[in-house]
Design goal:
Helix content: 25-40%
Number of domains: 1
CATH class: Alpha Beta
Strand order of the largest sheet: 1-3-4-5-2
CATH architecture: Roll
């Protein structure tokens, strides 16, 4: 996750197209999922495909980076590994809980692997342990995570609320 949109004209133009079409005037976060270019590309593709409708972050990262925790109604621009904007999402639900309390439904909503809770736990343990190795802070089942569910709102061809064709 990053919030440096003002330095990238592609991201600003993407948001402006959405804001003009919908009369939106709120701010947005930049969401680059994963910790590598390859993973960011894969996860952005899952969002576009309609498979990924959730994401998880360590709660402590928001505090450390001085970012507000997400809340329903917030917008994010999902970017790929090249920071190319792929879609705009709107947060519809946020929960904060220890990793051990993540459930099968949320694991499935995140859209990775086979969608199971065991796959989610395994993949997030690996991901957060890589982060832990960088920042020196341990991650375990008691570590609080921020679980966000979202819907795609832009561009229209990827939107979860496409008009029905008759």
């Amino acid at each position: 996750m990053a919030n440096d949109a003002n330095n990238d004209s592609r991201i600003r133009q993407f948001w402006n197209a959405y804001a003009e079409a919908t009369r939106a005037s709120t701010t947005f976060a930049i969401l680059q999922f994963g910790d590598s270019k390859v993973l960011a590309d894969e996860l952005a593709a899952l969002v576009i495909a309609g498979t990924k409708r959730g994401t998880t972050s360590l709660r402590r990262d928001f505090v450390a980076l001085g970012w507000p925790e997400p809340k329903p109604g917030d917008f994010g621009i999902v970017v790929d590994g090249n920071k190319t904007p792929r879609c705009i999402v709107r947060i519809v639900q946020v929960d904060v809980k220890p990793m051990r309390d993540v459930d099968e439904t949320f694991a499935s909503d995140e859209g990775g692997g086979d969608g199971s809770l065991s796959w989610w736990m395994s993949s997030h343990a690996r991901f957060f342990n890589r982060q832990s190795a960088r920042d020196g802070l341990p991650v375990d089942n008691d570590t609080e995570v921020v679980l966000e569910r979202f819907e795609v709102v832009w561009p229209p061809e990827f939107s979860d609320r496409r008009p029905q064709r008759t």
